[in-house]
Amino acid sequence: MSEQPAPRVTVALSGGRAVAGRLHARRRDAEGQWVYAVSIEVPAEAVRPVDGEDYGQVPTERAGGRPEWVLQALPQDTPDQRALVLHRADCWAAAEGRLTRASDKEAAIFVQHGWATACDVCKPTPGREMISG
Ligand SMILES: [Zn+2]
Asked: Domain span at residue 88?
């Protein structure tokens, strides 16, 4: 797909949190209030499926719904002091150095423990697989 993504917005949630979103449409209602149609990205744990809905046609970023990740070892990486960068498997920035494929769970654990930092280019988000139905 070469369609341009909708422009980005920041969406304020209750509790003072804010998340990145995309603005798809806006309309002004009869009272003059603006209403925006926005999609937001949240961790999969925050989303619950609705009975009877079919999620089979939801676009999924990786074949089979299982993102693949690559850990790139920095020169100073040692078993005692991990220094890794986590990339999406297809990231162009992960072209050199010692590269190790990681499962979604492994990648999430590495980031959670600070053993790997997320790549600035591909912005990997392990542990946030979409609902597979
Ligand atoms: Zn990357």
From this structure: 66-118
Per-residue model confidence as pLDDT tens for the chain (133 residues)? 446 778 999 999 888 888 888 999 999 999 999 999 998 877 777 888 899 988 777 766 655 545 589 999 988 888 788 889 999 888 888 877 788 888 888 899 999 988 899 999 989 988 875 444 3
> 58: which residues sit within 8 A by CB, 6+ positions away?
130, 131
93 C-alpha vs ligand 1 centroid, how far in Å? 5
Residue 85 Cα to ligand 1 midpoint, Å, equals: 8
Quote the DSSP letter at residue 30.
Answer: T
Placement of tokens 């494929």 in the chain: 101
Q: Are residues 111 and 72 in the same domain?
A: yes
CA of 122 to the centre of ligand 1 (A): 4
The structure tokens listed for 3 are: 């369609």
**What's the gap in Å between 65 CA and the centre of ligand 1?**
19
Confirm whether 113 is domain-assigned.
yes
